[in-house]
Amino acid sequence: MPASSLLGARVGSDAALIVRRPWLGHWRGLVLPLAVLVLLEALVRLDWIPAHQLPAPSQVGQTLWWLAAGGELWGHIGVSLARVTAGFAIGAALAVLIGAWVGLSRRAESYLEPTFQALRAIPSLAWVPLLLLWLGIDETPKVVLIALGAFFPVYLALLAGIRNVDRKLVEVGRLHRLSGVELTRRILLPAALPSLFTGLRGALSLSWMFLVAAELIAATQGLGYLLSDGRETSRPDLVIAAILLLAVLGKLSDGLLKRLETRALHWRDSFVGGEG
């Protein structure tokens, strides 16, 4: 049998195995984190790493248990989730509207694109003093800062997706005498959908990153507040617990968005990769 046929058969069988046993890929993803946890536990127990600098994973687990048992943990998680959800929704919605407008209009691009590129280069912490002056210290500046972080990945991805649509598809639409709105709705936006979801997933990751900066704005609850509290009280177990919670929540939210992407883009016949 030719080598290409063997390779195709192997990739096909591997892909079929993943489809039949989706849990297999999830368990493989846990191998590295579990190995790291076991290694760190051993190094701390053997006093090769000072416990006051890097606590053992078991100690971090105890800290999480105490926070959860006291009810404090769920309050922090709920507040952070609400802030990320609101900021991500606002930033992504504005990015879709403005990105579609700029992508479809050269005139809009000439007016807006230079300003957006300049704003994109501003670090997140640089916005904090200005938002405090403008919006005070309540929830509004926190949500606005997260929305700023979510805006630019979605905007850039959608703009690139629209501009990379095959021109032949547009010409076919014009041959069928589609109006500008119909051309956009039936050809341009569906063709740009994969790029849009890439931008949404990047924006969601940045929203969790911007959350930490946002919760430095006079926050009394949230995972960013836990990080700050652990630093000020010299409790590395609290700091690491907050980092782990951010990682888990970020992974779970990205998994939900990935499932939505798979459902929305089920029509694609894309390469899933082999087992090599």
Any overview of this molecule?
The chain has 276 residues and is an all-alpha fold. The protein has one domain: MetI-like (MetI-like fold), CATH 1.10.3720.10. The protein is 81% helix and 0% strand. It is built from 11 helices and no strands. The longest helix has 35 residues, at 180-214.
The helix tally amounts to 11
First and last CA, distance: 20 Å
- Could you say what the CATH topology is called? MetI-like fold
CATH class: Mainly Alpha
CATH superfamily: MetI-like
Please trace the helix and strand order, writing H or E for each element.
HHHHHHHHHHH
Please tell me how large the radius of gyration is: 23 Å
β content, as a range?
Answer: under 5%
What would you call the structural class? mainly alpha
- Uncertain runs are 3-19
CATH architecture: Orthogonal Bundle
Largest sheet properties: none
Which keywords apply here?
276 residues, mainly alpha, MetI-like fold, 11 helices, globular, disordered N terminus
